[in-house]
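Bench log. Compound arrived from synthesis this morning; before running ITC I wanted a structural hypothesis for how 1-deoxynojirimycin sits in the protein. Inputs:
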Amino acid sequence: MLPRSLRCCLPVCFLAAVFAAAPAAPATPASVDDRVRDLLARMTVEEKVGQLVQYSSQEDMTGPASSSSIAPQLAVGGVGSLLNVKGAAETRKWQKFAIDSSRLHIPLLFGLDVIHGYRTIFPVPLATACSWDMALIEQAEHVAATEAAASGLHWTFAPMVDIARDPRWGRVAEGAGEDTYLGSAIAQARVRGFQGGDLAAPDTILACAKHFAAYGAVQAGRDYYTTDVTERVLRDVYLPPFHAAVEAGAVTLMAAFNDLDGTPCSANAFLLDRVLRQEWGFQGFVVSDWQGILEMLEHGNAGDLREAARQSFLAGLDMDMEGEAYARHLAGLVRSGAVPMARLDAAAGAVLAAKFRLGLFDDPYRRGDEAREKAARPVPEHLALAREAVRRSCVLLKNNGILPLPTAGLTVALVGPLADAAADQMGCWNGEGRPGEVVTVRQALAEIYPGARLRYAEGCRTTGDDRRGFAAARAAAAGADVIVAALGEAKSQSGETTSRTNLDISGPQLDLLRELHATGKPVVLLLMSGRPLMLETVEPLVAAVLVAWHPGTMGGPGIADLLTGAANPSGHLTLTWPRSVGQIPIFYAHKNSGRPAPKSGHPEDPYYSRYIDSPNTPLHPFGFGLSYTRFALDRLRLSAALLQPGGAPLTVSVRVRNTGTRAGEEVVQLYVRDRVGSVTRPVRELKGFRKIALAAGEAQDVSFPLTPADLGFWRADQTFGPEPGEFEVFVGDDADATLTAAFTLAQ
Ligand code: NOJ
């Protein structure tokens, strides 16, 4: 669909052709900076403002549309970017219109939410995070960039690097989970994957780290809601993944919808100027979220749109997504002196610099190429990587030995609303992914268990109350040796605007599961969702639980590989799995409190931090994941008992042994606790991880370097850095790691 209607296109083109006197292009200046300066010198205030205006196609909208038709604005250079315009032909059409009709022929930037793949859909970001495999994540984003670029796109609104500790929030599916250290590493891998080494290459797109900042901290997990985060928590927990993304070269950031300490992020000078520009030296540009500037009227920190535009722009927000704030008011604000021209030049210059770096002034059509787009439809290599991503992202939470399933002599009942659900399998934000290209679990298992050996029944939907399919499900189960129940969330239950207060497996699915359990046949729960769902009462009913998240195009084959043992599960949780919604927020890096729970037993004295109706512990800790083999970790060693600032790093090493009978991969995790600080410190924090492959019986030493910088935090005096004193080290394969040692950080 066209971005706005082209109703007025012809007269505008005509007028543009008659009146636009395009100045001759100067000899190509040496650097991007020179070229930007040269161009800015030739631009009017309105043209500079135009670079900061972004409109959407009416497809894939994530909010109300602004009202006007954009063709006249495009023709006068009044639009710098379009979002949600997809496809080589469409992007070319709009690029050509903008370039041919505007005075300075400045190319447009086309952006889209390429969140976990474009045409080849990878598992949702929370899932690939569970792979703990940075190379895989980077490669997946490179595939996404390749496909998106071939479709004429220049820019993805990803990665979402929001730390999220509340699975009621539907957007946990889009991020890396709860941990700052892991989230920072993943942010960098994703930025590298999208942007590659050379932005001018035709298979790269700009990354956009979002949502700056603390969107994952929305109260009660309710989307678009407010936050209450101290500067300390902001700096220790929420900001580092953004900083990491900036250090990896992310050219753009998106301001979050939420307010932070009373100021919406869209106008938050502390974030957009002090932290981002002054402290981190960010040189790129910041885009608002959808009508984020306009929303300040609802937030209540601006009385009208002009004031909202003024506040946002002065705070450091460069581009207005699908709003009218800058288009209507920015030029006037500059002319009145309310906004300095230097700020306008800096913002427009940053957008132009990105366009130069992408090579758009040299060839505005270099990415969108219909032939290349066709070639970039799911090609075997992309599909193979997507399958591998599924194999490495699924997390095995329980297995009484029933998995892997034998492929010979077994009849399988595959039951549930997600067993053959191509669209739902892709999850939230599925780009140009097409249900017809998805291989479902049913299709994949039918290859392995042909004919009557696979008995399928949908059973019910994920919502509603229709149980008419239960009888067919029972019948399918009756003739089978094992039941695989594919339950969880439809795609419409995950992602933006899908906050939930009840995280039970929804609709009639739980009753269906109980009926399957009542057959006496062993049940394997295949959970497909964008977040942890409550399993405390479910796990006792089933023989195994494999969490497949929303696994994307190749979900079926990847899951079949795991169920049958062609691949060995190696995913580990990046979000603590609660027992109940009442425990939320629950995360491993919590504070100890003055009355921590005793390590064991039930003391007479109940006055410690606890519930009277639930343990404090989660159902499964952060970092947890089973395998079809077993691993033993021992021989924890520190290279020294004293870490000297400026001296050699301390090395923590451990021996990891595969004690089972098949090859597998282990995620070895290093946690540190700072015993005494100028402010209270978390009970443990991840400071290193390695994913290693070991053959049956094989052993390997794994080591992690630790430097004083790794121990830094926002201290009582509001500076960042480590404090001398005692530290505990824990190594294991989840956040409950029990191997422990201690060292001292010297003065
Ligand atoms: C709103 C979402 O919050 C943001 O993540 C997304 O990039 C924009 N809409 C554009 O679709």
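What the model suggests: The chain has 22 helices and 26 strands. The pocket of 1-deoxynojirimycin is lined by residues 62, 113, 157, 210, 289-290, 496 (CB under 6 Å).
ITC booked for Thursday regardless.
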